[in-house]
Design brief:
10 strands; 28% strand; Alpha-Beta Plaits; 5 helices; single chain; 2 domains; 249 residues; alpha+beta
């Protein structure tokens, strides 16, 4: 039987989601917790691979287990076993052919910027200078659609394709925060952080909002802006079709 787990974590103390040699990762922590509690070797498959220091309000992962079990009881045991910076929000049974990564139809990320220093919020990037957010909002319109986003991808990545379909991109602002939200079918490594860095260069007047088109067409990472720090980035939602739940008793 296949189960989905809905996970939140503060990525500050982790070298990303995916297991790496001699590094503390979220996937390793969850594998260890599940294997211990279910008394079986469990390996979870995540919907995405957040980088070092990146957070998740919602990351979905799946694992297979031969027996049914008390979902609430196991969820509570997992939360008691895991460190405080990882939370299991839900566990539910899905159809056997549903895959956490390949069945996802969209992912949504947010990048948070703080305008004022706040020692109680570490999931945001501090910027106190004045930024032209109107131009940044205008630039968002040029990201929408299916395009080759090589100009915003980490160099030498082994992607089959660098084409992504962006459904939404936008900025929201209040007196203390500036938040960028972007939704797409898939993302390239470092893509969101590079887009935000480019947007900030637009907000600082270093490049024009209309330059986004030329940057995308160039497929050249050196034409885009810098990558902002990981601490402000969170995966906030993974979306699936409505019929993935296994309704069998």
């Amino acid at each position: 039987m296949r189960f989905f787990i809905d996970i939140s974590y503060d990525g500050t103390n982790y070298h990303g989601w995916q297991i790496q040699p001699n590094a503390k990762t979220v996937q390793h922590q969850i594998n260890n917790a599940l294997s211990t509690i279910l008394n079986c070797n469990i390996s979870v498959v995540g919907a995405g691979r957040t980088d070092t220091g990146v957070h998740a309000k919602q990351l979905i992962a799946h694992f297979d287990f031969e027996n049914d079990f008390d979902l609430l009881k196991i969820r509570n045991k997992l939360n008691g076993f895991l460190d405080n910076d990882i939370s299991i929000n839900d566990i539910y049974k899905v159809k056997d052919d549903v895959h956490a990564r390949f069945s996802a139809i969209s992912r949504t990320y947010q990048y948070r910027i703080s305008k004022v220093k706040n020692p109680f919020i570490r999931q945001s990037f501090l910027i106190t200078r004045k930024i032209n957010t109107k131009e940044m909002i205008n630039a968002c319109k040029l990201l929408i659609g299916e395009k080759d986003f090589s100009a915003f991808a980490k160099l030498h990545s082994d992607n089959f394709t660098n084409k992504c379909n962006i459904y939404y991109a936008g900025w929201e602002e209040d007196s203390k925060h500036l938040v960028f939200t972007i939704k797409a079918n898939r993302f390239l490594r470092n893509m969101v952080r590079a887009i935000v860095g480019t947007m900030l260069e637009i907000g600082d007047g270093k490049i024009k909002s209309t330059d986004i088109n030329d940057i995308i067409l160039s497929k050249d990472r050196t034409k885009a802006g810098y990558s902002v720090p990981a601490l402000g980035l969170s995966l906030v939602n993974v979306e699936y079709e409505n019929d993935i739940i296994d309704e069998r008793n």
